[in-house]
Amino acid sequence: MRRFFFVTVALFLCGCTEQRDSGNRKASFDYSSEAIANDTSSDKQDVFLSNDDKEAEDNMIFQAADERMAFSFDGSYAPNLYSTLDSFCISDGNIQYQYESEDSNEVKTVKYEKIYKEGLLFLKMEEGFPFSITENDSKASTSDTLLVLIGKHTSEDGNNFFPDGSTLFFAETAGFDYPYTFITHSQNFLDHIGRQVYKDCSSFLKENDVEYKVENLSNCKPGTPWVEGVSGSGIGEGFSMECERNYLLIMNGFISYDKPYLYKQNNRIKKLKVIGLENGIEKTFAVLDTPHPQTIDISDFEDSGDIRIEIADVYKGTKFDDTCMNFCAGYTARVIPYEDTIY
Asked: In the chain, which stretches have pLDDT less than 70?
């Protein structure tokens, strides 16, 4: 069953461009504390919009203010088709995994600790993977560190697709140079995503031979963002997509395993404007400054046909004035991010 799922994933994502770098070609700007919209103090109760922002239009939609998440992400997750792992489990501060090979099929248990690199969450194991984690390259390098992106499904809206509190989990590591993430939360993830057809993108960043196109949003693998391509912060830049689900699942910013500093150095989306192209409904949503998966409720656009998504405001980067988003797709359930801001 796992193999069938990932064959489907590979075919579904084969058109996505897998990008590597993100030094940006736009001029940097003078950075000040006023450019940062999120609160980095110890008080995390209000990480959303300032009082000045509350002068925005009446149709501004605010997500419920969640304190920093600390829920457990213990569970069994699905290794990618192209990995050599047969199983992967997190439990009580340990990672348990098993290779497919008959020569190394014992269950390995290693302790891990949570560490932060430039605001991104990593799990550092007490020892790395002993054998290659890719099927077609026995000499591929391995690592003892996993970049993890975590959310929690909630059933507050009456959704029955996922058990309340079930984990949405993605993990990436060094040496896994294949489409989609090294580990994902389940075999049926794509069943709950709307058609990932992106249209009429206003701009994207071209950097030497790398293009950060809007189609990158279909792949939640780190290192493959859409980056707007105009001078300045990209306010008003956007794209259209089909509206087939009640939520938009988003992973904000430039997320990179090898270069985690690119998350803070580049702009992240603070507000998204959503426009129904057939019925004219228009709303602006607050977006949390976190790389972890989060959703915005677009159920009011159910009969809107295609929707237009535009950047309405940004969290300023410390170095580059490019606005980035790693993933965006319709989704069937509400998701709360593991953390509501970067640290």
From this structure: 1-70, 102-105, 136-141, 155-164, 186-188, 190-191, 194, 343
Q: If DSSP states are collapsed to H, E and C, what string results for the chain?
A: CHHHHHHHHHHHHCCCCCCCCCCCCCCCCCCCHHHCCCCCCCCCCCCCCCCHHHHCCCCEECCCCCCCCCCCCCEEEEECCCECEEEEEEECCEEEEEECCHHHCCCEEEEEEEEEECCEEEEEECCCCCCCCECCCCCCCCCCEEEEEEEEEECCCCCCCCCCCCEEEEEEECCCCCCCCCEECCCCHHHHECCCCEECCCCCEEECCEEECHHHHHCCCCCCCEECCCCCCCCCCEEEEECCCCEEEEEECCCCCCCCCHHHHCEEEEEEEEEECCCCCEEEEECCECCCCEEEECHHHCCCCEEEEEEEEEECCCCCCCEEEEEEEEECCEEEECCCECC
Q: Which residue carries 């009082």 as its tokens?
A: 51
202 CB burial (10 A radius; 0-12, 13-18, 19+):
middle
Using a 10 angstrom Cβ sphere, with 0-12 exposed, 13-18 middle and 19 or more buried, the burial of residue 114 is exposed
* Cβ contacts of 323 within 8 Å, gap of 6 or more: 227, 228, 233, 234, 237, 266, 267, 268, 269, 311, 314
As a whole number of angstroms, the distance between CA 155 and CA 189 comes to 17
Strands 282-286 and 60-61: parallel
Domain boundary assignment for the chain: 2-16+70-191, 33-68+193-337
How is residue 241 written in tokens? 């997509």
| Domain at 33-68+193-337: CATH architecture | Sandwich (2.60)
Beta 183-184 vs 75-79: how paired, if at all?
antiparallel
Question: How many CB atoms are located within 10 Å of the residue 188 CB?
Answer: 12
* Both structure tokens of 110: 């290693």
pLDDT digits (tens, 9 = 90+) for 71-104: 899 999 999 888 999 999 999 999 999 998 766 6
